[in-house]
Known about the structure:
It is built from 10 helices and 6 strands. By secondary structure, it is α/β, with parallel strands linked by helices. Helix 3 (36-57) crosses helix 4.
Amino acid sequence: MTPLTGVQACVFDAYGTLFDTASAARRSADLLGDNAAPLAALWREKQLAYTWLRAAQGRHADFWQVTGDALDFALETLAIGRPGPRDRLGLRDRLMQLYLTLDPYPEVPEVLRRLRAAGLKTAILSNGTPRMLEALVAGAGLEGLFDAVLSVEQAGVYKPHPKVYQMALDALGLPAQAIAFQSSNGWDAYAASAFGMRVVWCNRSRQRPERLPGAPDREVSTLEALPALVGA
């Protein structure tokens, strides 16, 4: 795969790119059983849908609230937590707390270390709240591996609004073409490309190409290939 030239910084989406969003449900398999995978999928689907719908309506609520609302929807839809609300509440609290310590994907720590050793700037650009992102980074032992951890709360609107991607340029002091943006979410990757960033789509789930403005510069299945792509 042909390397990208002129990249001075790598900016990462957090959820699904650096951190496994299914790991909270997977770590609750003792309570969820066969519902662990369906819950994780529906929870994530509604979480993203609520960010887009709130952005379209101009009714922002932070990602912690959105994540809880999406979990409530998923638990009720799948009838998990019966026989009573109290049982569901205990499970809900456990899942929400686990969402603060999602598992990083296995390659992530070494990839970040290689990028830093090569002199590249690194940052997170995420829908998560500052508290959520701080907990994720600390829980995974990734402190000191980012020049910036950026939350959409600063912009007051969710991805894929251009104001969010502009935050990375402002924080790093670089033009869009000097930044490689990595996301596992196709819609996010295409939006960052349309904004003007170089984009490496980490297509972990083998999604089909989007029919949206923009196009990723490169596509990989994990972040393991990223250092070679950006000369690290």
